[in-house]
User: What shape does this take?
Amino acid sequence: MTQLLAAWSAGDSSALDALMPLVYDELRQVAGRQLAGERGAHTLQATALVNEAFLRLVDQTRASFKDRAHFFAVSAQIMRRILIDHARRRLAAKRGGGLETVSLEGVLEWPGKENLDVLLLDEALTELATFDARQSRIVELRFFAGLGVEETAAALAISTATVKREWRVARAWLLNRIRPA
Amino acid sequence: MTPERWELVKELFEKVVDVPPAERSSLLRAAADAELVREVEGLLEADARSESFLAMPAGSLLGAMEAIGRWRAPERLGPYRLLGEIGAGGMGTVHLAERDDDTFRMRVAIKIVRAGAGSQGLLRRFVTERQILAGLEHPGIARLLDGGSAPDGGPYLVMEYVEGLPIDVHCTRRRLSVRQRIELFRKVCAAVAYAHQHLVVHRDLKPGNILVTEGGLPKLLDFGIATLFQPGRTETATALHALTPGYASPEQIEGRGVATTSDVYSLGVVLFELLTGALPYRTEGRSPLELARAVCEEQPQVPSAVAKGEALDADLDNIVLMALRKDPARRHPSVESLDDDLKRYLEGLPVKARPDTFTYRTGKLLKRKRLAVAAALLVALSVLGGVLATLHEARIADRRFREVHRLANALIFELHDGIQGITGSTRARELLVKRALEYLAMLSREAPDDPAIQKDLAAAYEKIGDIQGRPGIANLGQYEAALRSYEESLRLRRKLLASHPGDEELQKAIAASTLRKGHVLADRGRLTEALESYEEGTRILEPLHTARPDDPVVARDLGVLHMLSGDVLGHPHRPSLGRPEEALERYLRGHAIQRRLLSADPKSGERRHFLASHTGRLAAAEGALGRFDDASRHFREATDLLTALKAEFPRVGSIRSDLAFLETAWAGLLVESDRDRALALLAGAEATLEELAARDAANAAAREDRAALAVRVADLVSPFDPARARREYERAIPLYAEILAGSPGRARVVYPAARAHAGLGERSAAVALLEDARRKGNQDVRAEALLAELVIPFRPPLRVTR
Assistant: This one.
């Protein structure tokens, strides 16, 4: 695991393919436990989820702080995939297994007032990545892995000021894309 | 949008976003590109309403997470009808179910593992382990009844359904006192100890797995289940244990091996929680990761300092904190031992657990580890752990490291399975040794010139030798193999020393190896070779000792080498070559060294105990040489030392047994001149050893001591009390039969066993024992003399001839 993380951060993209199923499996299990846990918690904190998965998957004695950051980066991508997959499946189920059509049905409940179309967000994020990959990753880390500004900065080895600046622009762009004024 | 254009958009956006609207429009107007301006205006508009957008992490999206986590259980599984979900754990859900055959109805709990939960091997492991797990029949353990495969391929386990409350909830609801809580907890200990006797480790003890029934009986759930969940993915196996951060031991968190002492740790956490209402490590505000770090690195809180209810005293603190030690070897060696200490506490007796600073240890305490398997496992783990750590430091290639790591895992898992598969643990331990040696051979090939690895190899061979046949600890009884391992360790170290002459650590290590090798040889009765080995060690340590007489390790080891050389040369009551003058000369040298050591630290219990041993040896040799006055004086000195130690360390059994044998030897010196006093000494020795044997019925060493004393007493009293001598010999015979069946060929057992047979007139049994030992190289002169006595004066029965 730790080696895979290191390989991936060193630019070996095949390492990511090896990492994904491991982390995916683990996140699912952790999510299940937390949801069904005795604590009765009904909101899942993404950070706690990813933390626990990290704890269970990575050899603690050998992992550095950097490995932890890499792990979060992977987890963020996976969380994104999980959510998107789910939205797609749900949509498909409602349509009787038919084709994906209008994305409004793929809306997920938001604990707050608004709803968020995850599929639209995903599309927009994919588009954003074509001209600003770093911004797209910042969004993944902050939104899908629930990382704070500092943790995001550490994961990407950039300054917190940069994270804040980029996050603000990215958010504005995405919102404009998903829900134009 | 191109990246280049996006850079321009961002630049303009950032330039204007935080300025007041009035200035903003003028700044925007200044920009030449109208398209760019429109783009930025759009962003500015969105920025103004984006406050709540993406403000909460996606993980909070309930529906999706539920879909990730939830899984729908089937309505039936085999003969069981599922009635409803009653709980969920890391790998799946637990359901109440009913078996509705025609004949009877039974309620069970079914644990269903989600398909694809990474537990492909679970079913396979279940098949191999179900017999062992189903064999756990104890009122305190919920039984595993059945298992199978659900339609979607996920395995399921059927368990006894227990109605009850988690033990912590039970204690709170019933408002139990500290005393009642401990009494309840002891019942939990009894159940865990039972499982350990059947070589099943729980691995996931926590209040949620300990339910207390309405009647107040605790029942353990999921025994051995964690074992089943050991994933087969070797790469990440160590980190994938299904563990609960608050209760898992440091070794589980770090992915090192799990032994019965890991359950001792988790029980310690549960006890901590029952007594204080808190966990040993601060939990609030900590992520699981931080909590895990704390478990591995921080000192636990002191129970009495955090107890919310009834006040706790220092003895309870000591017991709980001992169970929570990070080093498994320093916890209570078994659950029974933890339980025993709690019993003592409840009865107002002094407890065995001491604060962490207590360092007085003796070899015999090590012998008392009840679970030989656990001991062997720990040794194995320390071998692997040590080598792995060094490999890591040595920056061996990662691939290599992984390979070794995987092998270590295989060793541990296979060992575990092996242990569970059979009664007794011999096969598993053989497997352990075999694997460890294979792995060592691999390392040796890979790094023939790396001195660090060669050093570790030597250390590892030494430990392997210990497992194979080090006298005095649980071993495999493979003495020839042990000798070969020690010899290999010595060879590596001698070779290293040749290229690093003057390396003192190496010299000390070589001396330590000669000691172990000599010990095995002496135990087998191969006394000449033993003496050679001891002398090699002596030759190495003597110049070191001369150069630095104050080095306590060198001094102690040299003293011990002198003492053991003396023993094989001519100890009157041990296997020896029958050269008492030379023995006395060695004893005097050892005694002088030990006296000097003690003067540097006159309070040290360990050094006083060592001096008593040396002084007792002097006395015995002087007695054998007829130097009555010197012997009496030294007997008295040694007795005084041990008597004082006994009062100070009443629970150290070896002090008492040493005193008993000293008194016996002294009685031997006095028996002709002062029979009453001799008999009084013997009575004292007998009482001491009876007590030791009764205190710990499972302790083989105590039984051996008792048998040896019986023969000594019989020898002493036979001239004037033949009836008593006969009783004593008769007492020894069955004890020795048992000892010899368990560990044949031990030189110090052969002679007294044969002597007992001879004393009862069972000549052929005695001769058979002695001749067999002689064939195997036993050089004990006492055995030689007895054999000669039995064979030479023997004449065929007289026949009346004409």
Notes: Chain B has a mean pLDDT of 78. Residues 3-48 of chain B form one domain. DSSP finds 33 helices and nine strands in chain B.
